[in-house]
Design goal:
There is one protein chain. This protein is of the alpha/beta class and 757 residues long. It folds into 5 domains: 95 residues, Malic enzyme, N-terminal domain (Rossmann fold); 147 residues, 3-Layer(aba) Sandwich (Rossmann fold); 101 residues, no CATH class; 134 residues, Rossmann fold; 144 residues, Rossmann fold (3-Layer(aba) Sandwich). The strands form 4 sheets. A 6-stranded mixed beta sheet has the order 7-6-5-8-9-10, sandwiched between helices. It has a 6-stranded mixed beta sheet with strand order 18-17-19-16-15-20, with helices on both faces. A 5-stranded parallel beta sheet has the order 13-12-11-14-21, sandwiched between helices. A hairpin with a 2-residue loop joins strand 6 and strand 7. Helix 22 crosses helix 33.
Length: 757
C-alpha cells in the first residue's frame, strides 16, 4: 500500500501528496462555523433553549419564515451513492465522500453557498428517492452527484416531481451548460448559426443525453443531431435502446461514427479515450468544432486533432489544455441564483440563461485575477471559448441571469426588484470590500472625475484604468510612452485604444506651462530651470502631479514603481497639503462583519498630541463618509494608566483636546487593543465612553501603526484597503508596490469620489 501511495504524478501532484492534503491540519475538507456569537450564557440561551422557541413557533405558523430564521435558504446538500465516482466506477457511498466534500467546498469558495455532503448506502432508486425527499425541510437545494445511469434519470425525475426545491444532477446538467456555452462561442467564432449546425454526439450516457437535450433547447435542430453509442447511430428503427436514448433517435444512413462524421460541424464526445480517429476528423466540415470530454484521456488528444485539422476549435475536460469544460463554472452560480429567488426547480430556461451568460462572459476582457491564477493572459478566441473558473465575475453574471430566468419563467417564490443592487450584493459575497464601498462607487458614478494614472505602462495600472472607464467612474488619463501604452491596450483586447487620453512628457503640449509653473515653485529651493525641465520630462509622478495642478486632471494615482516615501516626495514637489491639514495615511481593514480604520500608518513617526487629535478627527470623518458611525480608540500598551509609562502624555493630551472640542463622535483612551475591541474586556471598564467595540484605531506612532497594518494584511485576517492618503490639496492616492488591479481601482475610485484625499 505504501508503494501504491507514492503514485505517479497526476495533475502536477503525486498520490501521496493528494492523501497528505486530505489528511493534514484536520482530516477532510469541511467544518461547521457558527454565524452568531457563542461567548456568554445569554448567547447560549438565545441560540438554543429557551430562545430558540421563538423562531420555532414563528416557522410553525408560517413555513416561509424558515428562510429568515434558519440557514435553509443558503444550504445545499451534495448527495451521492457512489455508484459512478468520477472515472473510477461504482466504489460505494463511503468512498465517494472525498468527492462530495470537495463539491461542498467549491459551493462555498465560488458562490458563498453553504453545503454539506450526504452519502447514501443504497443502489435502490426507490430507497434513495425516499431518503432524499424526506430531507426537504432541511435544505434549500439538492445537488445530485456521481450516480450511474439509468438510475440517475429515474432519481432526478422523481425528486423534481416530489420536491418543491431546486434539484440538479450536476454530472448531467452542469456538463451540458458549460458545453453549450462553449459551443455558442465556437459557433460565433466560425460564423455558424446554431440552428443550422450538424452535430454528432458520441456517447449516450447521462451527460451526453443532457448535453443533447440542452443544445436542442438552445436552437440546434433535432434532425441535425446524430447520437451514437457503442452500437453506432441511434435511429428510430433500432430496438436495443432505452427510453432516454430513443428520445434522441434520428433517421440517418450512417452506419457508424466514421460515416456520421462526414461533413459534420461539431463532434461532441462523452464516451471513451481514443474514440475519435484523426482520419475521421479530416472528413468533418471546415473549421470543425471538437469537444472531446472523456476523462482523464479525451476521445482525441488536441495535438492529434490539430495535426490533421489546424483550423479546428478543440475543448476537453482537462485543465492542461485550452478550453476546459469545467462544471465549477456552473453549479455554484446556478444554485446561488436559484436560492436567492427561492426557486422551486431548475428548469430549461434557467439552464439556457446560465449557458448564455457564461458564453457572453468569455467574450469580455479577462480580468487580472485570471491572469494571476494561470500565469498568462487570456483573450477570447479559439483557445479561450470558455471562461476560467477563477474569473470573479462569474458569480455576478451567471447567478443574476439564472435568478432572472427563474422569475421570468414563473418558478421564483421571491422577487429581486433591483438587479443592480443584487449584482453588487453578489460581488460582496466573495469580496467584502464591495459592500463596504457601495456608496463610494455610486458617488463616483454620479460625479465622474478625470483621474491621472501615473504609471500607465504597468499592466496592473492599465487594467485598473480600463475598468475605471468601463464602470463609469470617470475618465482615465494615462501617463506613459504613447506607443508602449497603445501596445498594451491592444494586448488587453481594448477595441478602441485611440479613445484613451495618453499624456507623454516627450510630446505633451502642456510641458512648457508645467516647467514654468514648477520653476516658480522651486527656484528658491535650489533648483535651476534645467533641473525642473529634467524632472518634468523624466519623473512620471512630477509630470502626473503637474497635470492635476494645472487643471488637466482632478486627481492622481501612483505607487507601483516607487516606494511610498519616494512617491510622496515627488508629488510634494508639485502639490501642497490642504491649508491647516496634516497629511497622514489610513488603512481600512474589512472583515466579514466589521470594518476598522487604522491611522496614521504612513507619514508621522512621533505625532504630537495636537496631531493625534487631528488624525482622530479626520479619520472619524472618513469613516462617517463611508457610512460608519465612528467610535475612536487611542491605542497604547497601557489601559487608563495601567501600566504606567513615560510615553503616555501625548495620547492623554489628545483625548483632552477632544474633550474641549466635543467633536461629535465617541472616543476613548489610552487603552490597549483588547479593551477597545473585545466586548468581554470592555465590561471591565464600565466608565468607558465607547458604546461598542471601536472601529477607528488611532495608533501612538508610525512604527506600531505601519507594522500592525502590514502584519494584518500578510496574515490574511482581513481584506485591506490602503494606505489611503489624507490631507493633500488635490486627491492623490499612492498604492503599495505590490498592489493588484482591484487595489489600484479601489484607491482611484476613493480619490475620485472625494471620500479621501
Amino acid at each position: 500500500m505504501a508503494d501504491e501511495a507514492e503514485g505517479a504524478p497526476k495533475g502536477g501532484f503525486t498520490t501521496r501528496e493528494a492523501l497528505f492534503y486530505h489528511e493534514t491540519i484536520r482530516p477532510g475538507k469541511l467544518e461547521i462555523v457558527a454565524t452568531k456569537p457563542m461567548t456568554s450564557q445569554r448567547d447560549l440561551s438565545l441560540a438554543y433553549s429557551p430562545g430558540v422557541a421563538a423562531p420555532v413557533e414563528a416557522i410553525a405558523q408560517d413555513p416561509k419564515l424558515a428562510a429568515r430564521y434558519t440557514a435553509k435558504a443558503n444550504l445545499v446538500a451534495v448527495i451521492s451513492n457512489g455508484s459512478a465516482i468520477l472515472g473510477l466506477g461504482n466504489l460505494g457511498a463511503l468512498a465517494s465522500k472525498p468527492v462530495m466534500e470537495g463539491k461542498a467546498v467549491l459551493f462555498k469558495r465560488f458562490a458563498d453557498v453553504d453545503s454539506i455532503d450526504i452519502e447514501l448506502a443504497t443502489d435502490d432508486p426507490e430507497k434513495f428517492i425516499e431518503a432524499v425527499a424526506l430531507m426537504e425541510p432541511t435544505f434549500g437545494g439538492i445537488n445530485l452527484e456521481d450516480i450511474k445511469a439509468p438510475e440517475c434519470f429515474i432519481i432526478e425525475a422523481a425528486l423534481r416531481e416530489r420536491m418543491n426545491i431546486p434539484i440538479m444532477h450536476d454530472d448531467q446538467h452542469g456538463t451540458a451548460i458549460i458545453t453549450a456555452a462553449g459551443l455558442l462561442n465556437a459557433c460565433h467564432l466560425t460564423n455558424r448559426d446554431i440552428k443550422d449546425v450538424k452535430v454528432v454526439v458520441n456517447g449516450a450516457g447521462a451527460a451526453a443525453i443532457a448535453c443533447t437535450a440542452l443544445i436542442k433547447a438552445m436552437g440546434v435542430s433535432p434532425q441535425n443531431v446524430i447520437m451514437c453509442d457503442r452500437s453506432g447511430p441511434i435511429t428510430p428503427d433500432r430496438d436495443n435502446v432505452d427510453q432516454w436514448k430513443s428520445a434522441h433517435a434520428t433517421a440517418t444512413d450512417a452506419k457508424d461514427l466514421e460515416e456520421a462524421l462526414e461533413g459534420a460541424d461539431i463532434f461532441l464526445g462523452l464516451s471513451a479515450a481514443g474514440a475519435l480517429k484523426p482520419e475521421w476528423v479530416k472528413k468533418m466540415a471546415d473549421k470543425p468544432i471538437i469537444f472531446a470530454m472523456a476523462n482523464p484521456v479525451p476521445e482525441i488528444m488536441p495535438d492529434e486533432a490539430k495535426e490533421v485539422r489546424p483550423d479546428a476549435i478543440i475543448a476537453t475536460g482537462r485543465s492542461d489544455f485550452p478550453n476546459q469544460v469545467n462544471n465549477v463554472l456552473g453549479f455554484p452560480f446556478i444554485f446561488r441564483g436559484a436560492l436567492d429567488v427561492q426557486a422551486t426547480t431548475i428548469n430549461e430556461e434557467m439552464k439556457v440563461a446560465a449557458a448564455t451568460a457564461i458564453a457572453e462572459l468569455a467574450r469580455e476582457r479577462v480580468p487580472e485575477e485570471v491572469a494571476a491564477a494561470y500565469g498568462k493572459n487570456h483573450k477570447f478566441g479559439t483557445d479561450y471559448i470558455i471562461p476560467a473558473p477563477f474569473d470573479p465575475r462569474l458569480i455576478e453574471v451567471v447567478s443574476s441571469a439564472v435568478a432572472k430566468a427563474a422569475m421570468d419563467s414563473g418558478v421564483a417564490q421571491a422577487r429581486i426588484e433591483d438587479f443592480d443592487a443584487y449584482r453588487m450584493q453578489l460581488r460582496s459575497r466573495l469580496n467584502p470590500t464591495t459592500s463596504v464601498l457601495t456608496g463610494v462607487y455610486n458617488e463616483a458614478k454620479a460625479n465622474p472625475k478625470r483621474m491621472v494614472f501615473a504609471e500607465a505602462e504597468e499592466e496592473v495600472v492599465l487594467r485598473a484604468a480600463i475598468q475605471f472607464r468601463d464602470f463609469g467612474y470617470g475618465k482615465p488619463i494615462l501617463v506613459g510612452r504613447t506607443k508602449a501604452v497603445l501596445d498594451k491596450l491592444h494586448q488587453l483586447s481594448v477595441s478602441d485604444p485611440g479613445s484613451f487620453e495618453i499624456q507623454n512628457s516627450a510630446d505633451s503640449e502642456h510641458v512648457p506651462a508645467m516647467v514654468d509653473y514648477l520653476y516658480k515653485r522651486l527656484q528658491r529651493r535650489g533648483y535651476t530651470e534645467r533641473d525642473v525641465r529634467r524632472m518634468v520630462n523624466q519623473e512620471r509622478n512630477v509630470f502626473a502631479a503637474l497635470l492635476v495642478a494645472l487643471g488637466h486632471g482632478d486627481g492622481m494615482i501612483s505607487g507601483l514603481t516607487r516606494t511610498f516615501a519616494q512617491t510622496v516626495r515627488e508629488v510634494n514637489m508639485v502639490l501642497d497639503r490642504k491649508p491647516g491639514a496634516l497629511p497622514f495615511g489610513i488603512h481600512m481593514m474589512i472583515g466579514k462583519n466589521h470594518t476598522t480604520f487604522l491611522a496614521d500608518t504612513t507619514m508621522n513617526e512621533r505625532p504630537t498630541a495636537e496631531e493625534l487629535a487631528h488624525i482622530a478627527r479626520e479619520t472619524a470623518a472618513v469613516a462617517r463618509r463611508m457610512g460608519h458611525e465612528p467610535r475612536v480608540a487611542f491605542l497604547s500598551y497601557s489601559t487608563f494608566g495601567n501600566p504606567s509609562g513615560q510615553w503616555l502624555g501625548n495620547i492623554r493630551e489628545a483625548v483632552s483636546i477632544l474633550d474641549r472640542e466635543d467633536p461629535g463622535f465617541e472616543y476613548e483612551g489610552e487603552m490597549a487593543p483588547d479593551a477597545a475591541l473585545n466586548p468581554t474586556v470592555m465590561k471591565l471598564y464600565p466608565f468607558s465612553r465607547l458604546s461598542a467595540p471601536a472601529n477607528v484605531l488611532i495608533m501612538p506612532g508610525l512604527q506600531s501603526a505601519n507594522l500592525s497594518a502590514k502584519m494584518l494584511r500578510e496574515l490574511g485576517a482581513n481584506t485591506t484597503v490602503g494606505p489611503m492618503l489624507i490631507g493633500m490639496e488635490k486627491p492623490v492616492q499612492i498604492a503599495p508596490m505590490t498592489a493588484l488591479t482591484p487595489d489600484v481601482l479601489t484607491l482611484s475610485v476613493l480619490a475620485s469620489a472625494g471620500v479621501v484625499g
